[in-house]
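Review form for a predicted model. The reviewer records the input and the model, then writes brief findings.
Reviewer: anonymous (R2)
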Amino acid sequence: MTIPSDNGAAASRSTDSQSGDKSRTNPRRQRIIRAAADLFLDRGFVNTSVDQIADQAQVSKQTVYSHFGSKEKLFIAAVESRCVATGLFPTFNRAGADPRRALYAMARDFAGMLLERDSARLLRLCYAGAETHPEVSALFFESGPARLSQVLEDYLRGLAEAGLVTLDNPRFAALQFLYMVNGEPMFRVNLGLERGWTDRELEDYLNSCVDFFLRGCSYRGGAG
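Model under review:
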């Protein structure tokens, strides 16, 4: 699913917050993450073993542990890598980025990830095992949604400190923005239905979310 960028502007893409660590670009490490992600989606966290991941990645079990330490940490890495690959966890340029464009880019990338079938499958797996294995849901929440809301909270706090917006609680504002973006099409996809919206409708909806949000926090910048 492709959602057009705001006014044809180039999307601000994310970078891994630890991209300076060369081990994170290690081809073997990335192969393990891809194998783990595929198996977690197909079998779920509980029914996937480190032996299976090692076999699919064509590495030894010891190699998996040397890179990640545990299956839990590998699950976190798999979730985080998916968020990074789809453009989330952006590094906002507080000094120069236009807030409207930055927020639209986040909304577009967040919506795009939520509408992907694999993302919906992963979420349903967490829901299905929530009662028997709540620790898996906790791992997913902390490595995905909680981290994303923290990134946005920090950005909004910076805007408030710069006098560009008025916010009583940046954390609440970040959550309100994200849950506004997470609308009807995402709910439909999570239920296994077609999203039911055209790309143009999604673009219009996301633009309206950004405009509504900025009006609500008394944005004192340009029209973007």
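Findings: The chain has eleven helices and no strands.
Further findings: Confidence is low (pLDDT under 50) at residues 1-22.
Recommendation: see findings above.
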